[in-house]
Write a structure and sequence with these properties.
Largest interface: A-B, 36 and 43 residues
Number of strands of chain B: 10
Largest sheet of chain A: none
Strand content of chain B: 15-25%
Number of helices of chain A: 14
Distance between the termini of chain B: 16 Å
CATH topology of the largest domain in chain B: Rossmann fold
CATH architecture of chain A: Orthogonal Bundle
CATH class of chain A: Mainly Alpha
Number of domains of chain A: 1
CATH architecture of the largest domain in chain B: 3-Layer(aba) Sandwich
Radius of gyration of chain A: 22 Å
Strand order of the largest sheet of chain B: 6-7-8-3-9-10
Radius of gyration of chain B: 19 Å
Structural class of chain A: mainly alpha
Largest sheet of chain B: 6 strands, mixed
Shape of chain A: globular
CATH superfamily of the largest domain in chain B: P-loop containing nucleotide triphosphate hydrolases
Order of helices and strands of chain A: HHHHHHHHHHHHHH
Structural class of chain B: alpha/beta
Oligomer: heterodimer
Shape of chain B: globular
CATH class of the largest domain in chain B: Alpha Beta
């Protein structure tokens, strides 16, 4: 007495391990990974720049690449969560820039450094909370809601700073030049003074968020909410709360690395606008294989996408190409990456069904 | 007049487990503003019974099912489960009373694997604040459970989006019964399904009803489907249950005739008033 819902002859059902040996299995596992495209392109660029200029594989230029990749990567990692929901957060770049200002103002008001950092992180998370609330409770599309927050934050920084540059917490956390000075202390090194601390923060955050998305109940809820909002709600997933939490996480992570970035460079320019960062971050997500339609996303892919952008920027500078050309290349690479992604998707589907 | 005689059916004799009434609905009404959708519904459901609910658009079928699944409360009347009156304030409420709803085949998350879909919102996790997923255990239990109810899915790691419509529907039904549901509400389970896939779902539903004593209410527009699936059919017209017939006592033709004459009398009433 069996009621097989699929007869063995049904062609659509042979997902999983394809028959045909280890080579075939490895190949199908390879093309099924969404991170394949950015890895291929990054490695290709790396080889190209290393061959073209012997200066590329030096600590200095690698650090330049990392310095460019870190902010983009930090924002992109949080952004993936929001993109998987089928939403977008355009304010994350501005949160990245605004949070150190909040820390600076609080410090000026007399708060100890540690408390100023903690409080500003709360503010960053609060911005995410507001983004989420506007999107979920007022039914404003997140594109519009976060664009609005982006402008408001930018305006606040311009007003409050009187349009003058500042050094985050001068005296207590000296700018980068003092990173060799021993008295900066371990805490200062950890939160940005040490040359490699920012990119290591981003790596750590990427690994944690990757794990959260793939291995935790929250991750399943995020994918379910983005993949089928109604279906997830009917199954009892608290979709509104899940959405708000994703916005909070995205903002919080951007703000946290924003502080590290400001400490690293030792200066903050109020005229620096977050839109410069957020578009690279969304670009990194897309290059990495995250769909803007929701339900699918890879944190590792977004991080590699950010590395790709960093390598491209630093590499072009090293081989002496004008930075203006950078924008043309980044555009071309996005088109190539998207095309390759689609092609690999079809290939993966074909490998599965044949 | 048929219209005014929604006599609640007695236990359908000759069915296994016919004695126990698991769900009883009495005089349930519901209005949305000036629009009265349900005008006093009486209905009962026996253990292991499959009850079909048929009627035109706007007859109130979906409203009744939504009340039973806890999506909104009735204006008046009562719902009893196993003899105890209950108030269903939410889907979780209904679920805790053993009522689960299957919404067409749209309920699954296409990007999640089969086992994740089966355990959606009831994930097995390790202890700790992170709620880490115990994927191994979920896979294992999913396989065993699907085997148990004779649903054949080659690999529980397959994403739901790559399954056929019938397989997805089967997973949706399996998910609803996995949580020890005793009453299953199915909204057009055979919609947009080919003949062979329909057959498989019909077998699954009949199998669950008989082997696990799951009681079901099935909404469908298609009479032929209902005759295959159900022990008993209730026809809803204008917010009332107008016909209550056991499928083995009637035929497709007879039921159609009954419905048509019921419509005529309703129409006549409307013209007279």
């Amino acid at each position: 007495m069996a009621y097989p819902v699929t007869s063995p002859a049904e062609p659509k059902s042979s997902a999983g391990l394809p028959s045909g040996g280890l080579g075939r299995y490895l190949w199908s596992a390879f093309v099924a990974q969404r991170e394949v495209t950015p890895i291929i392109i990054t490695v290709a660029l790396f080889i190209f720049f290393s061959v073209d200029s012997s200066n590329f594989l030096t600590s200095l230029s690698l650090n330049a690449a990392a310095g460019f990749a870190a902010p983009v990567g930090a924002i992109a990692v949080g952004e993936v969560l929001v993109l998987v929901l089928g939403e977008i957060d355009l304010s994350a770049g501005q949160v990245f820039l605004t949070t150190p200002w909040v820390m600076y103002w609080l410090w000026q008001l007399g708060l100890p450094v540690g408390w100023a950092i903690l409080a500003s992180l709360f503010v960053a998370a609060g911005v995410g909370m507001i983004n989420g609330m506007i999107t979920v409770l007022l039914n404003v599309p997140s594109f519009v809601a976060t664009l609005a927050t982006n402008f408001i934050l930018f305006g606040i920084v311009l007003i409050e700073s009187n349009d003058t540059e500042a050094t985050p917490i001068p005296g207590s956390l000296p700018p980068q030049t003092s990173s060799v000075v021993p008295h900066v202390g371990f805490f200062g090194q950890v939160i940005g003074v040490w040359l490699w601390s920012e990119i290591l923060w981003v790596v750590a955050i990427a690994l944690v968020i990757h794990y959260v998305l793939k291995r935790t109940r929250f991750g399943v809820r995020v994918i379910a909410t983005g993949g089928n909002l109604l279906g997830a709600a009917e199954a009892g997933v608290p979709v509104r709360r899940v959405k708000i939490w994703c916005f909070v996480l995205c903002s919080f992570l951007s703000g946290a690395v924003g502080i590290v970035d400001a400490v690293k460079y030792g200066s903050m320019d109020p005229g620096n606008a977050g839109v410069n960062y957020i578009l690279y971050a969304v670009g990194a997500c897309v290059i990495g294989g995250t769909a803007l339609t929701g339900g699918r996303g890879t944190v590792i892919g977004a991080f590699i996408g950010a590395i790709l952008i960093g390598v491209l920027e630093a590499g072009l500078t090293i081989i002496g190409v004008s930075t203006n050309d950078f924008y043309v290349y980044i555009g071309l690479i996005m088109v190539v990456a998207m095309t390759l992604n689609g092609w690999l998707d079809r290939l993966a589907a074909h490998t599965r069904t044949s | 007049m048929i219209n005014d005689a929604p006599a609640p059916a007695g236990p359908p004799e000759g069915l296994p487990g016919n004695s126990e009434v698991v769900l009883e609905v009495k005089g349930v009404t519901k209005s949305f503003g000036p629009l009265t959708v349900l005008r006093g519904i009486d209905l009962n459901l026996h253990s292991g019974e499959v009850l079909g609910l048929v009627g035109d658009n706007g007859a109130g079928k979906s409203t009744l099912v939504k009340i039973l699944s806890g999506l909104f409360p009735p204006d008046d009347g009562q719902v009893s489960i196993k003899g105890r009156e209950v108030r269903l304030h939410s889907v979780q409420d209904a679920s805790s009373h053993g009522i689960e709803t299957v919404y067409q085949d749209l309920a699954l998350i296409p990007q999640l694997p089969v086992f994740s879909n089966l355990f959606l919102n009831h994930e097995i996790t390790y202890a700790g604040p992170m709620r880490l997923l115990n994927k191994r255990k979920m896979r294992e239990l999913a396989k065993r459970y699907l085997d148990d109810i004779n649903v054949y899915i080659p690999n529980v790691d397959t994403e739901a989006g790559q399954l056929s419509g019938g397989q997805r529907q089967a997973i949706a039904v399996a998910r609803a019964t996995r949580a020890d549901a005793s009453i299953l509400l199915l909204d057009e389970p055979l919609a947009a399904m080919g003949a062979r896939e329909s057959r498989l779902i019909i077998d699954l539903v009949r199998g669950l009803a008989k082997s696990r004593m799951v009681s079901m209410i099935i909404i469908d527009h298609n009479f032929a489907h209902l005759f295959e699936l159900c022990d008993r059919v209730n026809v809803m017209q204008g917010g009332r249950i107008t016909i209550n017939q056991r499928t083995q006592d009637t035929s497709l033709e007879e039921l159609t005739e009954l419905m048509v004459s019921s419509y005529r009398s309703q129409l006549q009433q409307a013209l007279d008033s």
